[in-house]
Amino acid sequence: MNSVGCEINTSSPELLSFVSGLSLKTAGNIIRFREDNGAIGSSLELLKIPGMGVRTYEQCAGFLRVRNSPNTLDASGVHPESYHVVEMMAEDLGGKVIDLIKNEPLRKEIEIKKYITGPIGLPTLKDILKELAKPGRDPRAKFESFSFSEGVNTLEDLEPGTKMPGIVTNVTAFGAFVDIGVHQDGLVHISQLSDSFVKNPLDIVKVHQKVIVTVLSVDIPRKRIALSMK
Fold first, then answer.
1. What is the mean pLDDT of each run of 10 residues along the chain (230 residues)?
2. I want to staple 79 with a disulfide (CB 3.0 to 4.6 A). Which of 40, 62, 95, 132 is the partner?
3. Domain of 56: which CATH number?
4. How many of the other CB atoms lie within 10 Å of CB of 176?
5. Closest CA to 145 of 70, 208, 94
6. Range of 16's domain?
7. Could you tell me the maximum CA-CA distance found in the chain, to the nearest angstrom?
8. Are 56 and 63 in contact (CB under 8 A)?
9. What's the rounded Cα separation, in Å, for the pair 117 and 114?
10. How many domains does the chain have?
11. 184 in a domain, yes or no?
12. Domain membership flag for residue 147
């Protein structure tokens, strides 16, 4: 989770709770904040969420993605505490942050050792450059051409027993989360991954994988979807 990142405006509370610094309670607060105020618009807006203190923000912000933020770096894995370094890099090369992301030759001109400071060492700077080369390494970005079930767009459209296509967005020790096109990932519990015993979900599924799932149940008030691959 922490290596891939988590989209703040579409992820379920269960998924968010795996992000460093976030508990299931704080994840629930994020969901309620989204429901009451609409989509979160920037990384800094996270500080308005109940229970999101400065310490928690420092731990989780680098792993959360805000896709439609006016700040391009909010959709990347660069931690907000390092934004100023990327902005300095862009300014020194006479461009903008977006230019560093889109222009590989320009990135190669960065004299990385020039930006080493006490808090930010060479390993961190190398990680920043890797992220600029491929910001927001979210596997779901590869799913744009995938076709979900027609006419199924919200939780209310789901009916138990319905089979539908989906894409695995995350694999955990207790199962796999699957995007089925209703803006809320469903959970295939480890016991529902196969007709045979499953010790490790990664033996059955992997992120990016296209699967066919059956809707077992839908809890609309709690925004939870139980799925099966049996």
1. 76 86 91 92 92 90 87 88 92 91 90 89 90 63 61 90 92 93 92 93 91 94 94
2. 62
3. 1.10.150.310
4. 29
5. 208
6. 6-138
7. 59
8. no
9. 9
10. 2
11. yes
12. no
